[in-house]
User: What shape does this take?
Amino acid sequence: MFKFLKGVVGGSGTGPKDLPYNIGEPYPAAWGSWTHHRGTSKEDGSSVSIFSLSVSSSQDGHLAAGRNGVKRLRTVRHPNILSFLHSTEAEISDGSTMKQTIYIVTEPVMPLSEKIKELNLTGTQRDEYFAWGLHQISKAVSFLNNDCKLVHGNVCLASVVVTPTLDWKLHAFDVLSEFDGNSEASNSAMLQYEWLIGSQYKPMELVKSDWGSIRKSPPWAIDSWGLGCLIYELFSGMKLSKTEELRNTSFIPKSLLPDYQRLLSSTPSRRLNPLKLIDNSEYFHNKLVETIQFMEILNLKDSVEKDSFFRKLPNLAEQLPRQIVLKKLLPLLSSALEFGSAAAPALNALLKMGSWLSTEEFNIKVLPTIVKLFASNDRAIRVALLQHIDQFGESLSSQIVDEQVFPHVANGFADTSAFLRELTLKSMLVLAPKLSQRTISGSLLKYLSKLQVDEEPAIRTNTTILLGNIASYLNDATRKRVLINAFTVRALRDTFSPARAAGIMALSATISYYDMTEISTRILPNIVVLTSDPDGDVRTKAFQAIDQFLFIAKQHHEKLITGDTNETAGAGVPSIAGNASLLGWAMSSLTLKGKASEHGSLASANATTTPDLTISNPSTGSYADTASSAVNISDQPRPSSPTSTDGGWGEADSGLLQEDHDSDKEGWDDIEPLEEQKPPSLASIQAAQQRPVVPQKSQNTSLSQPKTAATRASKAADEDDLWGPVAVPAPRTIPHTVNVQPAAPKEDDGLWGSIAVAPPKTTSRPLKTKASAALDDSDPWAAIAAPPPTTKARPLSLGRGRGTKPASARLGAQRIDRNSSGS
Assistant: This one.
C-alpha cells in the first residue's frame, strides 16, 4: 500500500519523481512492448537512453518478462552488449488507471533501423559498415552461446541498437535463458515467454515446440537462425513478415551467401556457429573491419606495425565512410594518443580527420587530446605537434596557451636537438599572439635572447625574423628595451650573412616603433656600415633600409620647419609604403628557412660570437638622455658577468653606446674613427706651431736673415704637416689612439681644449723625423737651443723601471753635443 501511494504522489507524465534522469521524446521503433526514449541525466546533463514497459496489471506476462530482461542486462557485460546504468519500477497514473512501469536506463543508443536511414549509405561503404555491425553482433551472440551457455532467443533488427560511435549492440534480453541440454528445466523460461517471439523469427523446432530436439542441438542453434533473419532484414531493407521470405537471397552479398545459407539450415545441429562466422567469413575481411580491429587491439601490436599502420591511415581514412571515420575511428585514435599506445604518425591522421569536423566539434573532440599531448615526453610526439601547429593553433584559447601549452613548448628552446629548437622557435609565430605580456616579457624574450646566440646560424636568423613579426604584440616599454638592441647589436653583427640581412629587414619592418632620435643615433649608423658588407644581398637591403629611414628623417625635418609639433619626441614614426612587404618577407622566410641558395651555407656556417651586453636600470630616463650621456657611461668599468632580467638585450643604451670601442670582433672600428679624426689633426697643428722655435740652416752670418728663412721654412712645413694626416689617414694609428683615449669624445665639445692638452706621443713624433736629425748635424747650436719638451720626453719614455740607464743616456748625448759645438 505504501509503495502504491509513493508512486501516485511522485509519479508524473514524464516518469517517477525519484528517477535521476529526465525522460525525453520516444523513438518510433523499439523491440517488443518496450518504448525507447531519449533522456538526459539530472546531475550533469549527459545523454542516456531510457526504455519503459508499462502494463495495467501486475499479473501481465510482459511484466515478468521485463523483470527477467532487467536482471539479465544488469548481470551480463560485454563490449557488444548494451551497457546498463539504472533501473526502477513504479506505479504511474495514466488518467483514470494506474500502470505498473519498468524503467531501464542505459548508455545513449538509437534503434538500428533509424540509424541506417540517417546514414543513408550505399554501395561498398554500406556493405563495409554492415560487415562491421554484423561482426559485432556475431561476437555478442558467440559470447552468450559459447562462453555463457545462454540463449538470446530473438536476434533480429529490432534487438540491435547503435551507439553515438556507430557501434552495434545487442539488447532485448526478456527471453534470455540458460541452456543445458541435460536438464529439462533449463528451457523453462523459453517455454514461459515463447509467445514474445514473433513467429517469423522462430526456427522450425521452436515453432513446433520440439524441446527434445532443442536440447540435443547446440546452444547457438536458435540464435544462428536469428542472425540469418538479421542479415536478411539488413540487406533487403524490409522487416521480415514471414519465414518464407528468407529464401529470397537476391539481396545477400555473394561473399556472405554461403554463410547465410548455413545459418538458416533446417537441421539445428548443422547451423553455423557465430564464432566460425567471424573467423572464416570472407565478407568480414575489408578495410573498415580490419582498420577498426587493429585499433581495438593496438596495445598488442609492436612499434613497427604501429608505425606502418598510422602512416597509411590518413590515405585509408579518405576511402572509408566519412561518418564512421569521424564517429568511430576518431575517438579510438584520440584515446590511443592520449594514453600513449599510438605512435607519433598517428597525430597526422588525427589532424586530418579533425579537419573534416566543424569548429565546434573540433574543439570538443580533438583539441583536448592535443592539449594533453603537449605534456608528452616523447620527442617524436612533440616534433609532430610543432610541425602541424598551424592547423590547430588558431583554435587554442589564450588561457590554454598561456597556462597549459607554452610551459611545455618552452622546454624545446633548450633542447639538444637543433631541429626541435627551430620548430619551437617557429611555433611562437602562432602562439605568441595568445600569450600574456607577463609570459612574453618574463619567459619568451629570455629564450629568444639565448637563441640569438645559438650555434646554428639558421636559428639565429629565424630568431631575428620572429622578433620582427611579434613586435606588435609587445608593449611599448618592451619594444624600446629589446628591438634595437636585438637587431643592431646582435643581428647586424652576426657572421652569417642571412642573419645580417634579416636584421636589416626586421628594422625596416618595425620602423613605426622608433622615434627620430633612435633612428638618427642608433639605427642609421649601424646600417650604414653594412653598405660595404661582403655579401651583395646585405648591401642591397642596407641601401633600401637607409632610403626608408632617411625618408622618415626628411619628413621629420619638414615638420620641424613648418612648425608641426603634433608628433611628440617619443612617439613612433609612421610606417611608410613598403613595410607590408617587409613583414611578408619575414613570414615567408620563417616558413621556407631562407633562400634555396643559402641552404648549403646553413649546414657549414660556424657559430658566431655575440657581444656581452651591459644591463642597465630600466628606470634611468629617456633614450635621448641615455644617448647624450653615453660617453660618461663608457668610462665606467663594465661588470664582468651581467645578469639579465629583461629578456637578455638590456636597456636601449646597452647596445651600441656601452660596447667597448677597442673591440675588434664587434666590427665597430669602421665607423668610430670618423668621430676620432679631429684630435690627431689638432695635435698635428700644435706640433707644427712648436717647430718655429728650432732655427733652420742658413749660409749667412747675420742673425736677422736666418730668422726670416727659418720662418718661411716653418710655414711651409706647417702646411705640409697640417694636410698630411688629413689626406692620408693611418688606419692602425687611429684605433690605437681611440683605445688610449676612451674619453676622446669629450674633447669634441671644446676645440681649444684639445689643442691645450696634446697627447705626449704625438708631440714627440716630429722630433724623430729625418728633417730634425739633419738640423742637428748641420747646426749644433740649434740642438743646444732645443725646447724643453724634446729633452723631457725621452727620460719619461725610457726611464720607466730601468734604474740608472736614463742618466747614462743623457750624459752620452751631452758629450756628443759638446764635441760638435767645439768644432
In short: The two ends are 156 Å apart (CA to CA). The chain is about 55% helix and 5% strand. The first helix runs from residue 2 to 10. The mean pLDDT is 74.
